[in-house]
């Protein structure tokens, strides 16, 4: 009897706290300080220029154990005699098979006080809907939904139960997005999903988790700034909605119109910030080479000490209509406040990257002054793809190139200890690439430049270097006793192999016994003169 009483108390306690933590699961529900209200703002907003209902999910087949991901989106945006369009994507994440279909639609029903979308069209194979579930008496059940959509070979027939308090982006649900537009925006970041999926003729029951996004306002993804959007559902219960928008010159301004991270931490804590960094680690280009998308990111933020790596599951997950963009599932791993987490999410990528295009800016006047920087411009810079650069040079009319420096991030470079002599003709090659080298390009000097050394040179005719070629040592005869002089032997990559400073000498003895056979440069320097000459070690 005592054990039964204890169990009853435990059940009642769990039920009490569960109900208390979800007191928001009622209609009407208006979060404190929010401009968004449920169920009204789940419905159609006839006064806004565009709006869409969007959901993604990760589910597993209860019969086969197959992992599926999907995205369904309904847009209200009258165009070409239709009221909008619908996108349905389903992917078998184990095999990589996918079915992506976009269709124009008319809405046979579109309520303004609740979500009740019905689509009936000769283009759609079956009547589709996204609506609230109802009690037997016809009363709608708050934050529970029925969703059905179909293509010729696939269907989703699902029930959703929202299990977390809605995430209200920007605090009140309305904020400026991009340079001139605004949006109302909320997310339901965790929904228990059950039902069935039909994929290529096979139907099975599925269970899993889903995400819901709602936007309406003036920001139009078909016309306004390109973006990268990421949803993140983590194993510690934290969810993140993340945006980066790009200007038409591929900049990401450092403000909350272009950088947005909204996080659900727990039932009492959520926030929106622009204090984060999103680093692109890897890229992938489509088979036709016309689009290149990021496929791996590192997200860091001081708030909650976020450090996550996000990776797409499938490279070839591009939607073709109404325009080309990437839409696909992701996997996530990293740390939050120093503790390891994993997760799942989705990426929607409207921003495409280009291979770098460059123009050399120095030297361009036919003379290379070795005291000046080698410099170049990037003609198509992109804040999402900070480039790295290699510099090479040729003194044999571009037949071969030798390295000067690798992996620098600035667009200019001071070449110290150049392995060239005054009067030589030189060509430069600049190689630019993304961090993973998927995006790359190069630029070579259009014509040669004559090398000019930066200070007064020794008189080559009054200095003798012998023997040349040499194997153990060589001698340098100066035209007079020199108070101090330094010699260096430099290889073709600009590395100083040996150097020494001598005082009050007219003849220098240079030891080359430990230098491998090959072509090198002997460089002489004193306070105000320099000279460089080729030598051969045999």
Structural account:
This protein is 4% helix and 57% strand. The protein has 538 residues and is mostly beta strands. The chain has 3 domains: 21-349, Beta Barrel (AttH-like fold), CATH 2.40.370; 358-452, Sandwich (Immunoglobulin-like), CATH 2.60.40; 458-537, Immunoglobulin-like (Sandwich). The longest helix has 20 residues, at 2-21.
List the helices and strands and how they pair.
Layout: H1 2-21, E1 50-61, E2 67-79, E3 82-92, E4 98-105, E5 107-110, E6 116-119, E7 128-134, E8 140-150, E9 154-162, E10 167-168, E11 174-177, E12 181-199, E13 202-217, E14 226-234, E15 239-246, E16 259-266, E17 269-273, E18 277-285, E19 292-301, E20 306-312, E21 318-319, E22 325-336, E23 339-349, E24 358-362, E25 367-369, E26 374-378, E27 388-394, E28 402-408, E29 412-413, E30 425-433, E31 440-444, E32 449-452, E33 456-457, E34 464-466, E35 473-490, E36 496-511, E37 518-525, E38 529-537
Parallel strand pairs: 25-32, 33-38
Antiparallel strand pairs: 1-2, 1-13, 2-3, 3-4, 5-6, 6-7, 7-8, 8-9, 9-12, 10-12, 11-12, 12-13, 14-15, 14-23, 15-16, 16-17, 18-19, 19-20, 20-22, 21-22, 22-23, 24-26, 26-29, 27-28, 27-30, 30-31, 30-32, 34-35, 35-36, 35-37, 37-38
* CATH homology superfamily of the largest domain: AttH-like domain
Q: Helix share of residues?
A: under 10%
Give me the Rg, rounded.
33 Å
User: What's the overall average pLDDT, rounded?
Assistant: 92
Unreliable stretches: 1-20
Please outline what is shown here.
With 538 residues, the chain is mainly beta. It has one helix spanning 2-21; strands at 50-61, 67-79, 82-92, 98-105, 107-110, 116-119, 128-134, 140-150, 154-162, 167-168, 174-177, 181-199, 202-217, 226-234, 239-246, 259-266, 269-273, 277-285, 292-301, 306-312, 318-319, 325-336, 339-349, 358-362, 367-369, 374-378, 388-394, 402-408, 412-413, 425-433, 440-444, 449-452, 456-457, 464-466, 473-490, 496-511, 518-525, 529-537.
């Amino acid at each position: 009897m005592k054990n039964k009483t204890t169990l009853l108390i435990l059940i009642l306690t769990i039920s009490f706290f569960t109900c208390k933590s979800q007191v928001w699961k009622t209609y009407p529900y208006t979060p404190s300080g929010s401009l968004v209200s449920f169920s009204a703002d789940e419905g159609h907003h006839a006064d806004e220029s565009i709006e869409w209902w969007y959901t993604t999910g990760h589910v597993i087949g209860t019969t086969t154990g197959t992992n599926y991901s999907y995205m369904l989106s309904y847009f209200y945006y009258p165009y070409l005699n239709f009221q909008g369009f619908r996108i349905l994507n389903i992917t078998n994440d184990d095999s990589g098979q996918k079915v992506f279909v976009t269709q124009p639609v008319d809405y046979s029903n579109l309520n303004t006080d609740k979500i009740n979308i019905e689509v009936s069209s000769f283009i759609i194979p079956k009547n589709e809907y996204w609506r609230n579930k109802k009690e037997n008496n016809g009363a709608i059940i708050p934050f529970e939904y029925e969703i059905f959509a179909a293509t010729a070979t696939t269907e989703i027939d699902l029930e959703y139960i929202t299990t977390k308090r809605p995430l209200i982006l920007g605090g009140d649900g309305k904020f400026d997005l991009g340079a001139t537009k605004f949006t109302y925006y909320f997310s339901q970041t965790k929904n228990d999903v059950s039902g069935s999926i039909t994929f290529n003729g096979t139907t099975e029951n599925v269970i899993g988790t889903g995400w819901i996004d709602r936007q309406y306002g003036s920001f139009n993804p078909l016309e306004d700034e390109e973006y990268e959007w990421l949803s993140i559902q983590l194993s510690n219960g934290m969810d993140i909605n993340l945006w980066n928008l790009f200007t038409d010159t591929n900049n990401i301004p450092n403000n909350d119109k272009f950088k947005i991270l909204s996080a659900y931490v727990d039932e009492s804590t959520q926030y929106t910030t622009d204090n984060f960094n999103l680093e692109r680690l890897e890229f992938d280009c489509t088979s036709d080479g016309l689009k290149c998308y990021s496929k791996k990111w590192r997200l860091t933020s001081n708030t909650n000490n976020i450090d996550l790596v996000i990776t797409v599951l499938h490279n070839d997950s591009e939607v073709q209509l109404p325009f080309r963009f990437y839409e696909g599932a992701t996997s996530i791993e990293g740390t939050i406040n120093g503790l390891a987490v994993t997760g799942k999410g989705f990426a929607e990528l409207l921003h495409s990257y280009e291979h770098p295009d460059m123009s050399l800016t120095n030297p361009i006047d036919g003379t290379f002054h070795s005291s000046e920087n080698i410099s170049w411009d990037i003609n198509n810079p992109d804040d999402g793809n900070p480039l790295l650069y290699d510099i090479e040079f040729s003194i044999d009319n571009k037949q071969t190139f030798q390295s000067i420096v690798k992996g620098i991030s600035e667009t200019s470079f001071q070449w110290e200890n150049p392995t060239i002599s005054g009067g030589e003709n030189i060509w430069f090659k600049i190689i630019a690439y993304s961090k993973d080298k998927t995006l790359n390009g190069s630029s070579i000097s259009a014509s040669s430049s004559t090398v000019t050394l930066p200070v007064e040179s020794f008189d080559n005719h009054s200095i003798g270097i012998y023997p040349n070629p040499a194997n153990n040592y060589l001698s340098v005869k100066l035209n007079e006793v020199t108070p101090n002089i330094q010699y260096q032997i430099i290889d073709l990559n600009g590395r100083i192999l040996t150097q020494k400073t001598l005082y009050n000498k007219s003849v220098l003895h240079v030891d080359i016994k430990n230098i491998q056979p090959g072509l090198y440069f002997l460089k002489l320097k004193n306070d105000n003169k320099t000279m460089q000459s080729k030598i051969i070690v045999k």
